[in-house]
């Protein structure tokens, strides 16, 4: 589940979002290698078994076990669910995180439910027989995200995990908040919010306000998949953050 993407220097760990995979970072691995030794990770429940308990802590335990061979403090870059897992990991293991990038994820979605969303996913017309069918159904950005994530079989592309698992992961975010874990993060952090964010209004700015070592960037004309929707602006923000880190 941990993939060595090459490069030299400080380890850089890439964590994907819900229903994603390590492959969704493939367009960014090249420039990130200029900044360190890149690793990507397939979260549990995404093409491999999910934890028995579908809690954020269980997913972070799974991540922690996979990182046992990386001793040097890491640059942790996470999108959405991966951003949450990244900051919970950083809160629990501060000595293992050199810095953190959180893309379009907030600590408090309480009151939201994933039931309607899960029903929509369950109704997707699987398998998708061609790449073009995927792009036409989801659009060019999300279509590529799912092409990089879904399982390809002889008759087309299938979702690479259980809809119930994905739903239950999201439902946990609607029942509890993660402000305590966020406030335990000590590493320098870049908070990246999409103009067309999925997060509650103002929360990502508040994240940066509560963390003395955090900076906030809002990417114009970007949807939730900021790094794919506005890749150049995303790269510029991350590279500036990395360049400004203390030695």
- The strand line-up of the biggest sheet is 1-3-2-4-5-8-9
Q: Mind telling me the CATH class?
A: Alpha Beta
Shape field: globular
Major sheet summary line: 7 strands, mixed
CATH superfamily: Alpha/Beta hydrolase fold, catalytic domain
The number of helical elements comes to 11
- What is the helical fraction, as a range of percent? 25-40%
N- to C-terminal distance: 30 Å
Sheet-strand content, in percent, reads 15-25%
Mean of all residue-level pLDDT scores: 96
CATH architecture: 3-Layer(aba) Sandwich
Structural class: alpha/beta
Low-confidence stretches: none
Rg over C-alpha atoms, rounded to the nearest angstrom? 17 Å
Structure characterization notes:
- The chain is of the alpha/beta class.
- It has one domain (2-110, 176-243): Rossmann fold (3-Layer(aba) Sandwich).
- 39% of the residues lie in helices and 19% in strands.
- It contains 11 helices and 9 strands.
- The strands form 2 sheets. A 7-stranded mixed beta sheet has the order 1-3-2-4-5-8-9, sandwiched between helices. Strands 6-7 form a two-stranded antiparallel sheet.
- Helix 3 links the parallel strand 4 and strand 5.
- Helix 4 runs antiparallel to helix 7 (163-175) and helix 5 (131-138) crosses helix 6 (140-147).
- The longest helix is centred in the last third of the chain and has 13 residues, at 163-175.
- The protein is globular and about 50 Å long.
- The protein starts with a strand and ends with a helix.
